[in-house]
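Page 42, continued from yesterday. The earlier attempt failed because a stray header line got pasted into the input along with the sequence. Redoing it now with the clean sequence only.
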Amino acid sequence: MNSVTVKISNFFLAMQAGRPGAGTLESYFADDAVYEEPFTGQVRRHSGKADIMKAMALGWESPMEDMRLELCDVRTVGGEVHVQWICHSPSIPGGRGSGLNRYTFEGGLITSLVTTLNEQ
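This time it went through. Structure tokens are written below.
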């Protein structure tokens, strides 16, 4: 397993931990990182570590029941790391949802994370 794969695995473990994983999760982002996500029903862009952590904290206010994240495929495409994932939870219609995270790293830190959801 290479260092990027370990960082991605640890990122997902920290996300799955919820609020207790916040410090670890925050440590993976560069100070000026950007994060785009669709979890409120529209794509939102968060700039800077503090703004990103505020977006993450919204999910911790109403955590999904028995959430488990499964990494399906990790590959490098150009200068990005692409991770296909499945989220399992009875809180999701049908019990699961899936998507793609596209990461850009610099100096070992995430400088860009773009999350998209797959059509269900």
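Notes: The first strand starts at residue 29 and ends at 37.
Reminder to self: strip header lines before submitting.
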